[in-house]
Amino acid sequence: MQPRDLRLAGIALATLLCVACASSTPPTATDTTADLATPGSVGMVDIRELVPDIDADIRYAGDDNFTGTRVDGYDAAKCYLLRPAAEALARLERELRPQGLRLRIFDCYRPERAVRQFVRWAADPRDQRTKAAYYPALEKGSLVPGYIADRSGHSKGATIDLTLLRCEDASPARCEALDMGTPFDFFDPRANTDHPHLDDAQRANRTRLRDAMARHGFENYPMEWWHYTFRLQPPPDTFHDVPIR
């Protein structure tokens, strides 16, 4: 084979190898729409692997939520978070229990398909089934973007919705949610963390939750007393659409 032919053969082989490498490269952090993927495949962990008996009331896996129906992507009532966030939450749960307190989780990782359903719901003025319970003082169309984002930090795996429980003893059956002034997902200014018209107990309960979360690296979203994001987040363009199963 002539030198020129050897060079051409080398280029062809390099090209084939490059194509093979590209085809075997795993999807990027934002390329997670395949239903065969799992939250674990993008670095998330089920919080029950760290705290098996944590209280979880995952509303979007059923119809007890502001949409009135099970939400896309919630095929199981599970809480997935990026491991650093999950480990921080587990440490907080262990800290609270000797004080007679526990966490109750409402939502963790949220697939992007769920966010799209929320936006479609907000844009449909005909469906007012849940207005009295969830947004009595606001027009549905005004909920985006203050209360419902078109791209949610929940889809990154580092944001969580939760509250505090007061427990009489070690049994979860003897726990009651602290009075926070509004229910979870109540779209109203009264849900703002520092709303001026809270009573003393409600303000103290919200402050206690915010202080506890801050000690473990979570920052509150001021419009919603239940909404917290861990300080170590993925890059700004990282959003996942892996279903929860």
Q: What would your notes on this structure say?
A:
With 245 residues, the chain is α+β, with helices and mostly antiparallel strands. It has helices at 3-24, 83-96, 112-122, 131-134, 200-215; strands at 44-46, 55-56, 80-82, 101-107, 159-167, 175-177, 218-220, 227-230. Strands 2, 4, 5, 6, 7 and 8 form a six-stranded mixed sheet that branches. Strands 1-3 form a two-stranded antiparallel ribbon. The radius of gyration is 22 Å and the shape is globular.
Question: How is the topology of this model organized?
Answer:
Elements: H1 3-24, E1 44-46, E2 55-56, E3 80-82, H2 83-96, E4 101-107, H3 112-122, H4 131-134, E5 159-167, E6 175-177, H5 200-215, E7 218-220, E8 227-230
Parallel strand pairs: 2-4
Antiparallel strand pairs: 1-3, 4-5, 5-6, 5-8, 7-8
Summary, kept brief:
It contains five helices and eight strands; from the N terminus they run αβββαβααββαββ. β5 (159-167) and β6 form a beta hairpin. It has helices spanning 3-24, 83-96, 112-122, 131-134, 200-215; strands spanning 44-46, 55-56, 80-82, 101-107, 159-167, 175-177, 218-220, 227-230.
Secondary-structure class? alpha+beta
User: How many separate helices?
Assistant: 5
**How many strands appear in the DSSP assignment?**
8
Along the chain, the helix and strand elements come as HEEEHEHHEEHEE
The protein's oligomeric status is: single chain
Low-confidence spans: 1-33
Specify the biggest β-sheet: 6 strands, mixed
- What share of the residues does DSSP label as strand, in percent? 5-15%
Report mean pLDDT, rounded to a whole number.
88
Query: What Rg is obtained from the alpha carbons, in whole angstroms?
Result: 22 Å
Helix content: 25-40%
What is the straight-line distance between the termini? 57 Å
General form = globular
